[in-house]
Amino acid sequence: MLEEKMSLLIEEFEELSEFLGGYFHQDMEPLEEVWAEIVENANRKNTTILLNDIDRFLNSNLSHIEKEEFIKENCDLYFPAINTTPLEWLIQMQIEFKKLLPSLKD
Fold it and tell me: Residue 42: phi, psi to the nearest 5?
């Protein structure tokens, strides 16, 4: 994907980009610990904003390949090691956040 287009997408999906880069970077802990940290720091407002960004991203007109490139560009997960694709992984994260949302405080 062209660098200019990626920059525009990072602006358009800012919450998602910040979430991916903020938690899934080269110095991250094992995924279970990352998820525990996410849950510990989560609140209803920010999780709702992030979920809205994930929904917009998944429902956007971007191609499957462009979506996967965006996810890979914004986080440092090696998807073959976790036996999934970037898009499948993000959809699973979306599901987990939707399960988490009712238990979060404002």
Answer: -75, 145
User: Which residues in 2-31 are b (16+ Cβ under 10 Å) and which e?
Assistant: eeeebeebbeebebbbebbeebbeeeeeee
Cα–Cα distances (Å) from 21 to 16, 92, 99, 102, in that order, read 9, 17, 22, 25
Q: SS3 for 65?
A: helix
| Burial of 72 (C-beta count, 10 Å sphere; 0-12/13-18/19+) | middle
How far from 66 is each of 49, 61, 73, CA to CA, in Å? 22, 10, 10
Q: With H, G, I as helix, E, B as strand and everything else as coil, classify residue 76.
A: coil
Residue-wise pLDDT for 37-80, tens only, equals 998 989 999 999 999 999 999 999 999 999 999 999 999 888 99
Q: How far is CA 95 from the centre of its chain?
A: 11
Task: Write down the pTM of the prediction.
Answer: 0.89
